């Protein structure tokens, strides 16, 4: 298990959440 890979996955999930929130606000 690589800590770097886990951190990257978490970062990607956070970016997706931010994008979803931005889309909801736009709508």
UniProtKB/TrEMBL annotation:
Protein name per the record: Mobilization protein
Organism: Acinetobacter cumulans
